[in-house]
Design a protein that fits this description.
The chain is mainly alpha-helical and 100 residues long. It has three helices and no strands.
């Protein structure tokens, strides 16, 4: 699997924060690889650089709490909260499949 973090993004403070949040939340919820969360982030908001993932739009980097139509739910805003919710969902999915 290719590394989900494009080289141009590595080293920026925001990208470092996203990577650190993915690592911390994956570890906290027993998700085997934080890169899964980064891949979702890259797919949804190009690592927080587009759409609702931008800092000025609430940092909904995984799209959690953001319906296709209408506003995002504010309580899910922020890098840590988004990674927490993503890791929590992945943990539950793995548990339901007997993988955790």
């Amino acid at each position: 699997m290719p590394d989900p973090v494009p080289p141009a993004a590595v080293g920026t403070d925001r990208t470092s924060s996203i990577i650190q949040a993915a690592q911390a939340q994956a570890a906290a919820y027993g998700v085997p690889d934080h890169k899964f969360l980064l891949a979702i982030c890259r797919h949804e908001t190009v690592l927080g650089t587009q759409g609702k993932g931008k800092d000025e739009n609430g940092s909904f980097i995984l799209g959690y709490g953001c319906p296709s139509e209408g506003p995002c739910t504010e309580k899910y805003a922020g890098i840590q909260e988004q990674m927490k919710r993503g890791a929590e969902r992945m943990s539950k999915a793995l548990a339901s499949k007997g993988k955790k």
